[in-house]
Amino acid sequence: MVVLASAGGNTVPAIARLVQADEDTIRQVIHRFREMGMASLDPQWAGGRPRQISPDEEQHIVETANTRPEKLGRPFTRWSIRKLADHLRLHATRRVRIGRERLRQILQRHRITFQRTKTWKESTDPHRDAKLARIEYVSSSFPQRVFAFDEFGPLARCHHRIILGGDTGAVAAST
Fold it and tell me: Which of these, 53, 83, 89, 55, lies nearest to 67 by C-alpha position?
């Protein structure tokens, strides 16, 4: 719009009022267009604040988010955005200062979601950690396979008395 207004014969102060910009900015745009032509209309910078999270830090964030909090010495079973941001800032071996919204964006890009736990019962099994480690190993080593884990455990055999109808009054026991 600045270039078109300048080509139309408008003065710099008039263009500045039209686009609500500083006169010096308008002069820079016009001079740059005269020097570079149409290429000046496609700036090579996106503006905004420079990137603060390096690719290494982003990888560390993803690895931390995929690790159970208990393994990192935290007293809860699942991450939330707030808890993960606090852990990365205060408790991690490699500290990363990151806001909740930026953290949410990174996790979304890596398809990591945190589901709120509605109820939770901790296992009393003394071999729980070994079993969880085995499940994590199998699911990460064979990502192309689907595994189903029974959350109820083995069902006990129940003996029921079934009365068969009819005149005989026969009784059958099932196991």
Answer: 83
User: Which residues make beta-bridge pairs with 121?
Assistant: none
Range of the domain at 61: 55-109
Determine the Cα–Cα distance for residues 46 and 56; give it in Å rounded to an integer: 22
Dump pLDDT digits (tens) for 25-43.
999 999 988 998 888 877 6
Position of tokens 């990502």? 143
H runs (alpha helix) in the chain: 2-7, 12-19, 23-36, 55-65, 81-86, 100-109, 128-141
Shared-domain flag, residues 61 and 29? no
Residue 127 lies in a domain: no
pTM: 0.43
How many CB atoms are located within 10 Å of the residue 21 CB?
A: 13
